[in-house]
Amino acid sequence: MSTPDDMPKAADPSDILALDSLLTPEELAVRERIRDFTDQRIKPDIARWYDDAVFPLELAAELGELGVLGMHLEGYGCPGRSAVEYGLAAMELEAGDSGIRTFVSVQGSLAMTAIHQWGSEEQRQEWLPRMAAGELIGCFALTEPTAGSDPSSMTTVARRDGSGDDAGWILDGAKRWIGFASVAGVMVVWARTDDGIRGFLVPAGTSGVTATPIVRKLSMRASIQCDVVFDGVRLGPEALLPGALGLRAAFTCLNEARYGIAWGAMGAARDSHEAALRYSQERLQFGKPLAGYQLTQEKLVNMLLEIQKGTMLALHLGRLKDAGTLRPEQISLGKLNNVREAIAVAREARSILGGNGITLDYSPLRHAANLESVRTYEGTDEVHTLVLGQHITGLGAFR
Fold first, then answer.
1. Residue 202 sits in the same domain as residue 259
2. Are 244 and 257 in contact, with CB atoms under 8 Å apart?
3. Distance CA 132, CA 67 (A)
């Protein structure tokens, strides 16, 4: 009879459930490629970028070359990879920093998905190849100063400018917390019209558009979020996304982003756990490493439990998505659980680091601060709780 000592040992002692065995060789290769990029290109400089509140714009082209912009989309220069492969990429990038993963999400899951899903053939040909290459940055302008969780109450309006097939639009309103708007070559803007909420493409340099970066942030410092004002912005008929009618179109894009977040949050959690584990093995207190104390081991184990469960959940969602059966309430479950648990992991990891953990020499508190933003955008805990509550009870409780 085999004894525990006879059993094969896992290559990674932190992968207790052998989750790597659930991935194909192609998926493992994608993960390792993105992990190498994160280790070499993001982690060495992220503390400085975060401290200086800078997003390195040169990363856009590098991420395009890496093949992670519009990673899940087909054609038009897009990589056309699987949902699981995109999820693995999101997890590895967020192990570097949530702000970097957020750029990939805004570019691909939001702006590019809107054009790919709801745009005309001419719009796809014009914008998507350059966006996939990282030559042009896009943004997704939905949230408003007084319309965050309730986008149906948006006040940004687009009015017809003229009549007939050549009629354009006049856009007025304001948006807030719009990622990368100040550096975007094209904005996907959602506005109220006489026909309902529609999506529009607003190229950079359009008269009447002002994008102002939000400063003095305590989170997402290596990223860009903006206030955007539209003041009598005149658009031609070609600006309208013909397939985007109603909030359902915008929510389709949001669900793509939420799916990636379920994976990404586990990357931040894993990196926090690894930082705490390394520190606890090296830091001596009372004559032995912190890792040798029962209370420290309990913290490390509890963190790993949630990382393993959350990663398994993300992988299950990915398999459902690749099978074409993933439902919105399942995405809500993944986003709600994994971000909430990732914040708890990052905070607990910081406690193992002691006072040193409040410096940018270590990643957990940076991850925890970033995850407060991740927890808020693409649906707060409360919104996703009510989505799940409605699914369970059949009763909507949003109002």
1. no
2. no
3. 8
Is 172 exposed, middle or buried, given 0-12, 13-18 or 19+ CB atoms closer than 10 A?
Answer: middle
d(CA 229, CA 245): 22
Helices (H) and strands (E) in the chain, counts: 12, 10
Phi, psi at 75, each rounded to 5°:
75, 175
Cα–Cα distance list, 115 to 24, 59, 140, 393 (Å): 31, 22, 11, 35
CB-based contact 171:156 (threshold 8 Å): yes
**pLDDT per residue over 185-221, tens digit each?**
999 999 999 999 999 999 999 999 999 999 999 999 9
- Angle, vertex CA 282, rays to CA 280 and CA 284, nearest 5: 85
Tell me the catalytic residues. 378
CA distance 242 to 236: 13
Domain co-membership, 209 together with 277: no
Question: Does residue 8 lie within any of the structural domains?
Answer: no
* pTM for this entry: 0.95
Final residue in a domain of this structure, among 191, 223, 245: 245
> Which one, of 206, 138, 210, lies nearest residue 174 by Cα?
210
Query: 47: number of CA atoms within 13 Å, CB side?
Result: 9
Residue after which a domain boundary falls, among 132, 162, 188: 132
Is residue 36 situated within a structural domain? yes
4 within domain boundaries: no
- Within the chain, what is the greatest distance between any pair of CA atoms? 84
The span from the CA of 317 to the CA of 319, in Å, is 5
Query: pLDDT-derived band of residue 8, with 50, 70 and 90 as boundaries?
Result: low
Cβ contacts of residue 342 below 8 Å, gap of 6+?
265, 266, 268, 269, 272, 306, 310, 367, 371, 374
- In this structure, what DSSP letter does residue 200 have? E
Q: For 398, which DSSP code?
A: -
Tokens at residue 210, please?
A: 């002002």
For residue range 73-100, what is the model confidence (pLDDT) as tens digits?
Answer: 999 999 999 999 999 999 999 999 999 9
